[in-house]
Design brief:
The chain has 466 residues and is of the alpha/beta class. The chain folds into three domains: 76 residues; 190 residues, no CATH class; 177 residues, 3-Layer(aba) Sandwich (Rossmann fold). Helix content is 61%, strand content 7%. The chain has 18 helices and six strands. A six-stranded parallel beta sheet has the order 3-2-1-4-5-6. Helix 15 links the parallel strand 2 and strand 3. Helix 14 packs parallel to helix 18. The chain starts with a helix and ends with a helix. 45% of the residues are buried. The structure holds NADP nicotinamide-adenine-dinucleotide phosphate.
Length: 466
């Protein structure tokens, strides 16, 4: 039986890796998701066959409650609220790992199990510390994104010093528990300090940086699961935890690189506050005249275009304009216009945000073009339609050394012949800085909600070409 279980774990690990590999491309992502889910099913069934399972009734009750809640949440969640949903799931993942590891230690303290030895006390300590921190950190991230607490960075004097001292205390307690695992006051001290640390580390980070924090905490929950795998001597948990830990730290780095910010800058710079200050000293005020167009005016220029690139951003997600924009793209294609979508790696508020929305609206994958590939093509583009995007098309990132987003790679839409920007006002985007693109001679603003404006533009095109 033991060999069969180990072989099942190997199969599960292989399916996880194949799943991740397939998740790397939109074409194969659904298959990847299914493979990983089958892998998880194999691992769960194999674990249920382990001889030490004490009560199948309790396990089934847990599965019923968890699966029931998970299904309701997944069905009801809005796409725009997906980051906070991931944050919650992360938090529960970290908590589960910490609880299982803690149960092992508490059972030993009560004399039900032998005292942990070898690498196990270190693994218990790692799981409890990282899992507890992930739980409270993820809940603060959730509360910020759900606007239960303000999204602005919460800062106070000596904040970094306090956090550094708490981190040192956590490490000291962790060392103490690893050396004498049955010293329960030390253990509860470690739990308390780790929980507080999770809250205090995330509070000073601005709401809009939460996707990066969530990805980092997701990585931590993987590390906690991996440590618990060592506690239970469960290879499936070790492998899946390592995969989560590694892939999310890579994702965190990709996000930071795409914003041209270091992880330290995301974690410690209270970015929202800094950006607001920058806006206050001239970042966000008007820098010239803007030209406001109507959808009907724009239809004339679109009708004469041969090549159109649509740049979706966070505003498309807010307005849920993905279906409307697919209809616009189809209308243009029927007129013989070559249409592509330019995808910036951090457009929106979570990795792959635009890809997911456009896939939901059945926009063909081959129309989606990555930033590096599309940028050289903008000078030959007749019309760019910027749809609720702002920072990812801000030329200040290329040209203004004083800008908070200087150095962030952007879509060079200002190099196209004509640029239409759909947004509701002159308000800045996530970074809080004004966008010189809006004041360029070749830029025309169409003010309004992205979905309504795109629908009006499609209608105007139909009428103009009738
Ligand atoms: P953005 O810079 O935040 O700008 C979004 C624009 O959409 C706003 O200027 C807003 O202007 C407009 N908007 C909002 N609701 C709208 C609606 N209903 N209809 C029309 N327009 C609407 O977005 P982005 O260009 O996509 O850039 C993403 C930003 O998020 C970057 O700074 C990136 O670094 C950051 N970020 C991304 C991730 C990620 O993983 N994707 C993670 C963390 C941070 P109005 O209010 O005037 O309408």
């Amino acid at each position: 039986m033991n060999t069969a279980i180990q072989l099942a774990y190997l199969l599960a690990a292989t399916l996880f890796i194949l799943g991740l590999r397939n998740l790397a491309s939109p074409r194969t992502a659904v298959l990847g998701n299914h493979l990983a889910a089958i892998g998880m099913l194999v691992a769960v069934v194999a674990t249920l066959l382990v001889q030490e399972v004490v009560s199948y009734g309790l396990v089934l009750a847990g599965i019923a409650v968890g699966a029931g809640l998970g299904t309701v949440l997944a069905l009801r969640i809005e796409m725009t609220a997906m980051p906070q949903m991931v944050a919650l799931l992360n938090g529960f993942g970290g908590a589960a790992s910490a609880l299982v590891a803690a149960a092992e230690l508490l059972a030993a303290a009560d004399g039900f199990l032998p005292s942990p030895s070898g690498i196990v006390p270190v693994a218990i300590v790692a799981s409890v510390l990282v899992g507890s921190l992930t739980l409270t950190g993820s809940f603060v991230a959730f509360a910020k994104l759900q606007e239960l607490i303000g999204g602005a960075p919460i800062t106070y004097p000596l904040q970094r010093t306090t956090n550094a001292l708490l981190a040192i205390a956590a490490l000291g307690l962790a060392f103490g528990v690893a050396v004498s695992p049955l010293d329960l006051p030390l253990f509860w001290g470690l739990v308390a300090v780790s929980l507080v640390l999770g809250v205090l580390v995330v509070l000073p980070i601005g709401g809009a940086d939460m996707p990066v924090v969530i990805s980092l905490l997701n990585s931590y929950s993987g590390i906690a699961a991996c440590a618990t795998g060592f506690v239970l001597d469960n290879s499936a948990l070790v492998v899946s935890g390592s995969l989560v830990g590694a892939s999310d730290i890579i994702l965190t780095k990709i996000m930071c690189d795409a914003m041209n910010r270091s992880l330290a800058n995301v974690l410690f710079s209270a970015f929202g506050a800094t950006a607001e200050e920058a806006a206050g000293v001239g970042g966000a005020e008007a820098q010239g005249n803007v030209k406001a167009y109507t959808p009907e005016d724009a239809a004339v220029i679109f009708s004469n275009a041969r090549r159109v690139v649509i740049v979706p951003g966070y505003g498309m997600a807010v307005a849920q304009a993905q279906h409307a924009v697919r209809e616009l793209a189809e209308e243009l294609a029927q007129m013989g216009v070559h249409v592509q979508f330019a995808i910036h790696p951090v457009a929106g508020r979570m990795p792959g945000h635009m890809n997911v929305l456009l896939a939901e609206a059945d926009v063909p994958y081959d129309q989606l073009v990555e930033m590096d590939e599309i940028n050289p093509q903008f000078p030959e583009t007749d019309v760019v339609l910027v749809l609720g995007a702002n920072d990812v098309v801000n030329p200040a990132a290329r040209e203004q050394k004083s800008s908070p987003i200087y150095g962030m790679p952007i879509l060079d839409v200002d190099r196209a012949q004509h640029v239409f920007v759909i947004k509701r006002s002159m308000n800045p985007g996530f970074a809080g800085v004004q966008n010189p693109l809006f004041f360029n001679d070749n830029t025309m603003m169409i003010f309004g909600d992205a979905k309504k404006v795109v629908m009006a533009l499609t209608e105007a095109l139909r009428e103009y070409n009738a």
